[in-house]
Design brief:
Length: 297
């Protein structure tokens, strides 16, 4: 079946999967559309276009996945996806992968949710939407005010929850029972948690400032520190506290043993999220083994 420059063919033996062949300039989806599938690029390249500004903030190519909002219940597209030249995609229904992710241990779910939240941060940073006066911040207090834990859990399970992707992700993390909360009042303790204890951090209260390469980032609640870089064994970066900070600890080193048993589709999406967060097209040499792409002889 062909429509709008996209040929869509069922994949034999893979219930619900389709292979899409896109002509140059074909639009796969628009910002605001319901997200019910995610995509793996088999050939060619896609452009991810910000729905508000029209700026291209990502170009996933062969071996990369995109459209991960589909794994979130009630997710909607935050951008337009458009083919840059001819492209071939594998379309994967999200319901099955969402069920698989929901069946993982709570700490593994936290790894995936925090990786997606870190990508949201860097997408905004690269579009120039983060500064000292306009930091990255998810309105956690507003979301939780006057609501019990049970009410918040119920909200997350509804298809029409009306939460943005960062709001959904941060709430999932705050409600995750397996995450330890750290109170950080000194930069020494912040750096120890990140670089000595092998953890990533998700800020829930307070503010941080950090710099990776030439990019300087200011962040409040919802800011994720050190996940993609930690799983890629990249060097330490400059980071400072903007007062007292509370943060959830994601135990990266402890989770490595869990990753090997994860669903291959989930691992592929997680790997692609990390590469897009780092702004690279190929996996860094230090990327941990379970997430390194399989190489054929």
């Amino acid at each position: 079946m062909t429509a709008g420059g996209i040929e869509r063919v069922p994949v034999e033996g893979q219930g619900g999967f389709h292979r899409l062949v896109l002509k140059d300039g074909a639009v796969l989806f628009h910002a605001g559309a319901p997200a019910d599938c995610l995509y793996l690029v088999e050939a060619g390249r896609m452009a991810m276009v910000d729905g508000a500004t029209g700026a291209v903030f990502g170009r996933p190519g062969a071996g990369e996945a995109f459209g991960e909002q589909a794994i979130l219940r009630g997710g909607v597209r935050g951008a337009m996806a458009r083919a840059e030249g001819p492209a071939t995609l594998l379309e994967i229904p999200a319901a099955g992968l969402r069920q698989t992710l929901d069946g993982q241990k709570a700490a593994v779910q936290a790894l995936f949710h925090s990786a997606m939240l870190e990508l949201s941060l860097w997408n905004q940073a690269r579009l120039g939407g983060i500064s000292a006066t306009e930091p990255f911040k998810v309105p956690l207090d507003r979301l939780m005010l006057g609501r019990s834990r049970a009410q918040l859990q119920f909200t997350l399970q509804q298809e029409g929850h009306a939460l943005s992707v960062p709001e959904f992700l941060l709430l999932k993390l705050v409600l995750n029972p397996k995450l330890e909360t750290l109170a950080l009042t000194e930069e020494k303790s912040l750096k120890q948690a990140l670089f000595s204890h092998g953890q990533a951090l998700v800020v829930t209260h307070g503010a941080v400032m950090f710099q990776v390469g030439a990019q300087r980032v200011f962040g409040g609640a919802g800011t994720v520190l050190g996940l993609a870089s930690g799983l890629s064994r990249l060097p330490s970066f400059e980071v400072a506290l903007g007062g007292s900070v509370n943060a959830l600890a994601i135990p990266l080193e402890r989770l490595l043993g869990e990753l090997g048993g994860m669903n291959a589709g989930i691992l592929a999406v997680l790997r692609s999220i990390l590469l897009r967060t780092l702004g690279v097209s190929e996996a860094p040499a230090g990327l941990v083994a379970p997430l390194a792409p399989q190489r054929t002889p």
